[in-house]
Amino acid sequence: MPLDNTTDEYEEIKTSFAAAKVELGNNDWTLTPRVYWRKNADDYFFVRNQAVFNSTTSDVLGGELNFSTQSALGMTGLGVNIQDTKFKSSRLGDRKRTQWSIFGEHRFTFLAGKIDLTPGFMFTTYSDFGNGFFPGIDLGVKITEGLKGYASWGRTLRIPTYTDLYFSNGGNLPNPDLKPEFAQNFEAGLKYGKNGLRLSAAAFVREGSDIIDRTKTVATERWFPTNVSDLRLFGVEFSADVAPRLVLGLDDFFPIKKLNFGATYLPKIDYKTPSDRQLSRYAADQLRWQINFSTDFEVAKKFIPTLNVRYFERFTLPKGFDSAYKGFLTDVRLAWAEKNWRVFGQVNNLFNKKYTESNGITMPRRWFSVGLRRRFNLFIDVKRAQSLA
After folding, report:
1. CA 295 – CA 240 distance, rounded (Å)
2. CA Rg, the chain, in Å?
3. Could you give the CA distance from residue 372 to residue 245 in angstroms, rounded to a whole number?
4. Which end of the chain is least crowded, N or C, by CB within 10 Å?
5. Does the domain spanning 10-388 belong to CATH 3.40.718.10?
6. Distance between CA 121 and CA 133 in Å, rounded?
7. Judging by beta carbons within 10 Å of its beta carbon (0-12, 13-18, 19+), is residue 167 exposed, middle or buried?
């Protein structure tokens, strides 16, 4: 898809959020209730300084309760989550959704901890899409000191977005009859961790059905979202986390605190759509290459500069626009950290590159952000509290 050249577009987003969590327990069990709220207001102007094109607000209120316990049979975890979403849009209408989820897992260990097996499940229900059951299982095998092999399988779903369901304009049609898409994911790999060095390498496969795609038969039609596609992709990934002071035996005056490297490569994607749908909007909307490198420096103990460089390359490289679909992005952050709080300033897209993300959307050039993070810790020892009562 060609790069979006609509330069008069403008968008204002205001986000408010809050969360609270309490951890209760002792050496045998832990109970963690949590509540959260998030409000988002989004005003989109197709032409800046003209009437708003789409105004959207969303309110998400939720709560969850997690319980874990250790016994002779292993570690057990159970939880429940409820989330209520209210959505209002000048173009998508007023919507409401309630989601309930129950989840659990149990970790078995064998051969003095050299093998661990963790089956789990999640049962979820949506007020507008019904119920779903999603099992999964993880296997880990300790090979040598610090080296572990692992494999996992799980089943997931993605529900349609409100845009897919209800949005309509000159180039797109809605489809309120969309169904959720399903996928199963396989992954196997190796992990190594010892003395300030952590390495991992893995291969993964994702198989999806009823994948939501926007398609059309001829170029003059509007894009129409349907559950028409099947997806199969194969990829490999590698990551390395290095603490140079520990690995090289250097003192704290060495300025580099941490190095991180990660790479993901997708050599092949099989994306199948019916033969009567000649054009697909999302068929190759994937990253073939994604490489990340970041460095955390530490100056005077509390001053922490961070450099992050990312290379990306999409499967689709439209002729004449390929520079926007691949290249390097650089972010720089300066932070001052105390025990329970941190203040930071960040420059994103330092070199002002013009590039696109999913669906050919033009992303911001250089932009800035500042922030403050404060951490509050509260742990209640139930046995001690009872003894003092």
Report:
1. 12
2. 24
3. 28
4. C
5. no
6. 7
7. middle
**Is 45 within 8 Å of 63 (Cβ atoms)?**
no
Most distant CA pair in the chain, distance: 76
How far apart are alpha carbons 289 and 317 in whole angstroms?
Answer: 12
What are the mean pLDDT values of the chain's consecutive 10-residue runs (389 residues total)?
A: 55 92 92 97 81 87 97 94 95 94 96 94 96 97 96 96 89 92 96 95 95 84 86 94 89 86 92 68 78 91 92 77 84 91 94 82 88 74 51
pLDDT at 40: 94
DSSP summary character for residue 2: P
**SS3 category, 241:** strand
CA-CA distance, 324 to 360, in Å (whole number)? 9
Q: Which residues contact 182 (CB under 8 A, 6 or more apart)?
A: 155, 156, 157, 208, 209, 210
Among candidates 339, 255, 332, which has minimal Cα distance to 300? 255
User: How many CB atoms neighbour CB 379 within 10 A?
Assistant: 9
Centre a 10 Å sphere on the Cβ of residue 317 and count the other Cβ atoms it contains: 15
**Distance between CA atoms of residues 138 and 113, nearest Å:** 15
DSSP states of 244-313: HHHHTT--TTSSEEEEEEEEEEEEEEEEE--TT--EESSTT-SEEEEEEEEEEE-BTTTEEEEEEEEEEE
Residue type at 229 in one-letter notation:
S
Give the list of residues 6+ apart from residue 161 with CB closer than 8 angstroms, or none. none
Measured in residues, the chain has a length of 389
**Can you tell me which residue has the tokens 């349907």?**
226
Task: Please give the Cα distance from 201 to 187 (Å, whole number).
Answer: 10
Residue type, 283: A
Contact present, 313 and 288 (Cβ < 8 Å): yes
Cβ contacts of residue 273 below 8 Å, gap of 6+? 213, 215, 228, 229, 280, 283
Phi-psi region of 339 (alpha: psi -120 to 50; beta: other; left: phi over 0): alpha
- CB proximity list for 324: less than 8 A, separation 6 or greater: 3, 354, 355, 356, 362
CB 272 within 8 A of CB 283: no
